[in-house]
Write a structure and sequence with these properties.
Chain lengths: 787, 239
């Protein structure tokens, strides 16, 4: 080993505390990056292979009743590789131990025993025998939520008749990797399940022999999806199609895509923050070493070591720290990625979701950290390279200090010498001081970014389910219900208040943009289902015009006062031109609303309802629910509380895990910055400090000089970190803004306090470690050596 | 005056040097003309601030003059770029500094090997230590050595590359008399036995008695040049 390399290793050992602190910051950044990228790759690859093997369709459409005779024409649509037609019906289940409603989506399986598209993967048991009646294959999450195993019986209310189904298999489908009931935003495994039943059974139950109500297409590679949807719509609209859609509007696919987008986002912002901080820390650490080793550098140069040798020497020091940090980060990233994929396994159902290491991300991590380290320390190392050896021989001239502005403004002698030293030190090198403050503030910001999602989620739940939707039960009717049915429902024993709504499928167009949206007619003076603006104020339902939620307005590029074209996709299919009267805030879905009465008039229909919102006596929810379930006209009933709790539980668990990582990572940054800054202050000023001790200052007074600076930095960093955290959270909400849900930029006071607390705690710990060295100062030794 | 048959190792012409020290401008050299002859032992004598360190640094290729010329053998050092100066230092010059400038994280032997690794025809590191009488201290770190020992290691380091010239900047400045003598003996021995052209800077006039020639500097200029036909050994110096 070359002697210069030996020096390198010994310097590194000397520097171990600082090196470890910096290395850990790099580790945190790399770990997050590698974790996100591996989870991304695992999820992406698994999704792709499940889609390919089980023939996930590209285009979907539903109709009311389409004769099989049209199938040959579907196959002739240019670019279509395969066509699958089937029957799909949502029915209520009668699960004895359940007091809450569960809906099953029945999907037909043809006589051949397997669908042509969106095929079923049997996880346990067997595929149903299409020639036998009463058999069912149940989706895994639903079966698991209820403890169903093959051999169990389940009762469903199919077309008004209670029917006993025997479970023969437990299955997964590329169409339902995550099972979200249409109309809701969150998966609820207990209350929504997919049931595959034989085509014969469904045809008989719904009188649909020779017809279908759902079609899926798989396209040959490279075909234009949008055109196919248009052609399909033209063929199917006469049969009651509400318009086809692509995978982009398929719920399960959307959720997976959103998740992938989040992972990608995390893979960008996390390394950016951590590596930025690491670059800064490396810079201050290396600058200090180079200052300390001025004379060694001079000697090396005097003996003929070239500038390149010197530069390489210090860059190597930096690279070793960064390589160790990176390698460790990759290891931890793999472990975390594996854990994350494990956590996904509970959410997303694939035949097998396995962790796949993403080697490209490993290479990128090395490249990124190497570049960051080199850029971060470039100026410092350059100063060593350019250091004229003769100048380095001479002791460094004393740094020039000036009385700071603060001192000049205050009366003379109002500040103690210790405080003056602190102030002059900070003001002498304002850039370095600002960078330290920014570094510490990054720890605050990371805490805020990491925790705000929980605040936002809570706010979103509060906004959506406590402020806006104040009903206890939501009922939907199979067919639009007449006034007498509504009356009946509204007067059930235990129902305290009720509102009805009318919902129709439409396509809303504005200029060249369009979107399939359900338009809901709501009662103008509603108190259960309320529409709110971003300030949580009720938006009055106007007599005329349509209201869009802000996401829909953004998608369509519409402002209040614009005229939009609403194509109704039901019954008489009128096309209406309506003015946008107001915008409402919603954090999930894309929706439009109208005055219910005006909607009836536009549709030329009587006062009917697609559903109702009920406020129910808390003690009677179960009886009301049971009563509703018995009525044949009732399609589905959902209990708001149950849905909320189930969601909060799953989300909370995941967020808690993420949260603990974030706290650790923020702590790593805070300790990294504070420890390095303090350690460097100590080394820069050990002579001053020792001199002060010699002339009679106490350890405490000397510590003020050392730690006063850190304290000042931390105090300045906290509000700055709050601001940066807020800004980053804003960027994240923008990045996570999808059709399914938006995250409001809401940060609770508690999160700010918590962020400050963690950083103060980290500061205190590192300050304490460094402060102990003040008491160990070798007074005589320090004074004797020549700085 | 040296005879013309001898090789001139260094020749300087109207050398001046001005530099900035913090907020102060220092005129360290104001027109220095001198010659150093192969194999001779020269003492550059002067008070602190007389410009002697600056002169030595320029001769050693550590610094460049503000104006004037420095010739090393046939090479014009003032016309050399940084890479050429590095090459020159690597191949021809051995330095000894007042504060030793050893690498504290390397042992005595390793400090020497640091230099021999990049030299063209180096001595063995142990032999170099032998010359300064520190063979048995080879595996000690600088912090474990006394000041005199550190300086002798520094001398061993300087000569280990087998340099053409040995430049010593106040080699005894930080040492007591007894230790200083041991160090000077080591330097004299190298000059005598290896024939290395040696220049020693000092403000201690008695050291001048060891030299072949004494060049006195004062306020950045040469005050006098004195031949010393009656050299004494370090041990016989009076100070």
């Amino acid at each position: 080993m070359l002697k210069l390399d030996r020096k390198l290793i010994r310097d590194l050992i000397q520097l171990r505390g600082q090196a470890a602190a910096i290395g850990l910051v790099i580790t945190a950044g790399v770990a997050t990056f590698v974790m996100s990228m591996c989870a991304y790759r695992s999820l992406e690859a698994t999704r792709q292979s499940f889609y390919d093997e089980y023939l996930f369709a590209d285009v979907f459409s539903t109709t009311v009743r389409t004769p099989d005779a049209i199938i040959p024409r579907l196959k002739e649509i240019p670019g279509v590789a395969a066509v699958d037609t089937r029957l799909v019906y949502d029915v209520l289940l009668d699960v004895p131990e359940m007091s809450e409603p569960a809906t099953a989506r029945l999907i037909s399986i043809p006589d051949s025993g397997q669908s042509r598209l969106n095929q079923v993967y049997i996880a346990r048991g067997r595929m149903l025998d299409p020639l036998r009646t009463g058999e069912v294959v149940v989706s895994e999450v639903f079966a698991d939520a209820h403890g169903f195993v093959p051999g169990d019986q389940v009762r469903a209310i199919i077309n008004g008749k209670v029917q006993e189904l025997s479970i023969v298999g437990i299955a997964l489908s590329p169409e339902y990797v995550i099972q979200v009931q249409p109309g809701t935003i969150l998966p609820d495994d207990k209350r929504f399940g997919i049931f595959w039943v034989s085509e014969n059974d469904l045809e008989a139950a719904f009188d649909m022999a020779g017809a279908f109500n759902s079609v899926s297409l798989r396209l040959a590679y490279g075909n234009h999806v949008a055109t196919t949807v248009d052609v399909l719509d033209r063929l199917l609209i006469p049969y009651g199609s509400v318009g086809g859609h692509t995978r982009d509007e398929q719920i399960s696919h959307q959720y997976l895509s959103d998740e992938l987008a989040q992972l990608r986002g995390m893979a960008i912002w996390a390394p950016a923050i951590f590596l930025g901080v690491a670059a800064f820390l490396l810079n201050i650490a290396i600058s200090r070493i180079i200052t300390q080793q001025r004379e060694q550098i001079a000697a090396l140069k005097a003996f003929g070591y070239s500038n390149f040798d010197i530069g390489a020497h210090y860059f190597n020091l930096v690279l070793i720290i960064s390589m160790i940090g990176t390698t460790l980060g990759i290891g931890i990233g793999f472990l975390l990625g594996d854990a994350m994929v494990g956590a996904y396994d509970a959410f997303y159902k694939f035949p097998s979701l396995e962790f796949r290491p993403d080697w490209l991300s490993v290479a990128v991590a090395f490249l990124l950290t190497t570049l960051t380290s080199l850029i971060g320390t470039y100026l410092a190392v350059r100063s060593a390279v350019l250091l004229p050896p003769a100048e380095a021989m001479r002791p460094e001239p004393p740094p020039s200090y000036r009385p700071s502005l603060i001192e000049r403004l205050l009366p003379p002698r109002s500040l103690s010498p210790e405080v003056r030293m602190v102030i002059r030190n900070i003001t002498r090198r304002p850039i370095k001081a600002s960078l330290s403050v920014v570094g510490i503030s990054m720890a605050v910001a990371v805490m805020i970014v990491g925790n705000f999602s929980l605040d936002a989620m809570n706010y979103m739940m509060d906004f959506q389910f406590r402020l806006a939707q104040r009903q206890d039960l939501t009922v939907t009717f199979v067919e639009p219900a007449t006034e007498s049915v509504m009356y009946e429902v509204q007067n059930l024993d235990g129902v305290l208040a009720s509102e009805t709504m009318r919902s129709i499928p439409t396509r809303i167009r504005f200029q060249n943009r369009s979107r399939r949206v359900g338009v809901m007619g709501v009662e103008p003076d509603a108190s259960l289902f309320r529409l709110l603006d971003a300030d949580e104020k009720t938006v009055r339902v106007p007599d005329f015009g349509i209201m869009l939620n802000t996401k829909l307005a953004e998608i369509l590029g519409v402002r209040i006062g614009d005229l939009v074209i609403v194509e109704v996709l039901e019954d008489k299919r009128p096309t209406l031109t309506i003015e946008v009267a107001a915008l409402v805030e919603e954090y999930s879905g894309v929706n439009a609303y109208m005055n219910k009465q005006r909607l009836h008039e536009a549709l030329q229909e009587s006062n009917v309802a697609s559903g109702a919102f009920l406020k129910v006596d808390a003690n009677r929810i179960e009886t009301v629910f049971a009563e509703l379930q018995r009525r044949p006209g009732v399609g589905s009933v959902s209990i708001k509380d149950a849905a909320m709790k189930s969601f909060e539980k799953t989300v909370a668990e995941n967020i808690m895990v993420m949260r603990s990582f974030i706290v650790v990572f923020a702590g790593v940054i805070a300790i990294g910055v504070v420890y390095n800054t303090a350690r460097i202050s100590l080394s820069e000023r050990s002579r001053d400090l020792a001199t002060m001790r010699v002339v009679g200052f106490t350890n405490g007074e000397v510590s003020i000089v050392l730690l006063g600076e850190i304290a000042a930095f931390t105090i300045a960093a906290i509000p700055l970190g709050w601001m940066i955290g807020y800004a980053l959270a804003g960027l994240m909400t923008a990045g996570l803004d999808t059709d399914n849900y938006r995250i409001p930029l809401v940060i609770e006071r508690g999160t700010f306090v918590m962020a400050a607390f963690v950083v103060i705690a980290a500061t205190t710990v590192s300050a304490w470690v460094v402060q102990r060295r003040v008491t160990e100062l070798d007074l005589i030794g320090v004074l004797k050596t020549r700085e | 005056m040296p005879m013309s048959t001898q090789t001139t190792v260094f020749r300087t012409v109207d050398l001046t040097k001005t530099y900035q020290m913090g907020e102060v401008q220092v005129r360290a050299l104001r027109g220095v003309n001198l010659e150093l002859i192969e194999g001779e032992f020269v003492v550059l004598l002067g008070a602190s601030g007389s410009g002697k360190s600056t002169l030595l640094n320029i001769l050693g290729g550590l610094d460049t003059p503000t104006s004037g010329k420095v010739l090393y053998l046939d090479t014009d050092l003032t016309a050399s770029d940084d890479a050429e100066l590095t090459r020159y230092r690597r191949d021809h010059v051995g330095f000894v500094f007042q504060f030793y400038n050893l690498i504290p994280s390397l042992t005595a032997k390793e400090n020497i090997e640091l230099i021999t690794e990049i030299a063209v025809s180096p001595l063995d590191s142990m032999d170099a230590l032998e010359i300064v009488g520190l063979r048995e201290r080879a595996n000690h770190f600088p912090a474990q050595l006394s000041g005199g020992e550190q300086q002798r290691v520094a001398i061993a380091r300087a000569i280990a590359k087998n340099p053409k010239v040995l430049l010593c900047d106040e080699p005894t400045g930080a040492l007591d008399v007894h230790t200083g003598i041991v160090v000077l003996e080591a330097i004299a021995r190298i000059n005598r036995e290896l024939g290395t052209t040696t220049a020693v800077i000092t403000h201690n006039a008695s050291i001048a008695n060891m030299a072949d020639r004494v060049i006195a500097l004062s306020d950045g200029q040469i005050a006098s040049v004195t031949d010393n036909p009656s050299k004494v050994t370090a041990r016989d110096l009076q100070w």
